[in-house]
Recover the amino acids of this structure.
């Protein structure tokens, strides 16, 4: 290689690098557009009851303490897999929510009683069942979230 770096050498490196990265960008864009992204959502099972359960979830700010599919606060357990953890029983979920608060251990956090109606409990349980059926690629990594 020459000891002197000329303007034409710099221009050739600039143009060559620009062309290379432009081609790389185009190839990656083409690959992304042509590859089908794996379907992970659960829209085909979205019912009116699930939507109402999501509204109850939002109105009571459940995400202020719990995480859902990894999003939310880390004060209380993950609820994206609570339906599976409770033995695939909506009745167990409803009973757990209805039986709150349990003031058993002093200084330990506890869930407040929201005094939800039976319809709201059904809706929340259906919403949590629906979220447990989303393909999360094995997230959270442990069963308790």
């Amino acid at each position: 290689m020459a000891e002197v770096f000329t303007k034409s050498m710099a221009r050739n490196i600039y143009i060559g690098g620009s062309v290379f990265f432009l081609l790389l960008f185009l190839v990656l864009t083409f690959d992304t557009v042509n590859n089908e992204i794996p379907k992970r959502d659960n829209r085909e099972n979205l019912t009116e009851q699930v939507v109402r359960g999501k509204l109850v979830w939002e109105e009571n700010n459940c995400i202020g303490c719990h995480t859902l599919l990894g999003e939310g606060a880390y004060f209380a357990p993950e609820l994206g897999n609570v339906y599976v953890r409770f033995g695939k029983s909506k009745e167990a979920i409803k009973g757990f929510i209805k039986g709150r608060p349990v003031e058993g251990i002093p200084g330990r956090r506890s869930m407040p009683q929201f005094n939800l109606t039976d319809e709201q409990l059904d809706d929340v349980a259906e919403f949590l069942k629906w979220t447990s059926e989303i393909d999360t690629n094995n997230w959270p990594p442990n069963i308790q979230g």
